[in-house]
Amino acid sequence: MDSLTVPVSFDSLKPLRVFVQKAAAGANLDYVASYNLCLAVDEIATNIIMHGYADVTPTQADFIQAEASIDGQVLKIGLLDKTKSYDLSQALPLQLTVSLGERLPGGWGIYLARQSVDELFYERVGEYNHIIFVVSIQSK
Fold it and tell me: By the 8 A CB rule, do 74 and 136 touch?
């Protein structure tokens, strides 16, 4: 399993994206699947930075850790962070049938992440959030 640990900072989005791109290339994902996986990870990492640390300033001890592994015919990317617990499955669905002026703000990042990968899981492991992105590896 490959991993990368970065500080909680918007500057960390680029190295996270490069990490995911390398994992996708190693799994022989096509361009669209690779792009979608990068989009999903970028959206959730951005949410961790913006919302997970909205009320506190990250310290040098705070981090986002990315993990990549191939398990059978799937590529799994995991993100770990130490912010407050936030189960993605509890997020309110987007109000796509409501006019823009009547919609509640937010929710697009989780929506895009869910739409961009085959599966998206959340689990709380001790004091860590663990978000797992799963993409099928298509045989060629």
Answer: yes
